[in-house]
Design brief:
eleven-stranded antiparallel beta sheet; alpha+beta; 4 helices; 24% helix
Length: 152
């Protein structure tokens, strides 16, 4: 189980931060981004990760795939303190695990929104919904195929 946990931790780190050259220190001055802005930005969109996708559906529905190896189902939410989180059950051929992952969001003096994973204490990455988000559950066929293949 420890191997599985490390594997999913590595996946989580890679999911978001595959934007070469976009890491930076926390912008100064930085302001928290409101929950309503985050909910509107994520809701109904699929986020393209380096080797997978996450879908942030209406009613807090969260679904994700990582390559052709695993999938997750659970819930997502935005907080007034500037976080977007998911709590989901991941399943792959190697096992299963419940995970909670959050991303903190701040805006800089120019209004640019930055994010970082709760597992990353240093680097901030520019939130780029225009290039990383696609409207709808764009990987639904792949998700269903992987889920069926794993007995789900």
């Amino acid at each position: 189980m420890r191997h599985l946990q490390l594997g999913f931790a590595a996946v989580t780190a890679l999911l978001v931060f595959a934007h070469p050259g976009s890491a930076d220190k926390k912008p100064r001055p930085a302001q928290k981004v409101g929950g309503q802005y985050l909910a509107n930005t994520y809701n109904g969109n699929s986020w393209k990760w380096s080797k997978g996708y996450a879908y942030f559906g209406g009613g807090g529905v969260f679904k994700a795939v990582w390559e052709d190896r695993g999938y997750a189902e659970g819930k997502w939410y935005a907080t007034q303190s500037g976080n977007v989180c998911y709590e989901a059950h991941w399943k792959s051929k190697k096992g299963e695990e419940d995970r909670k992952v959050c991303w903190s969001h701040v805006s800089d003096a120019d209004g640019v929104v930055w994010q970082r994973s709760s597992s990353d204490r240093n680097d901030w990455y520019r939130l780029r919904p225009e290039t990383r988000f696609e409207r709808g559950f764009v990987f639904k066929r792949s998700f269903n195929h992987i889920k069926r293949g794993l007995g789900g």
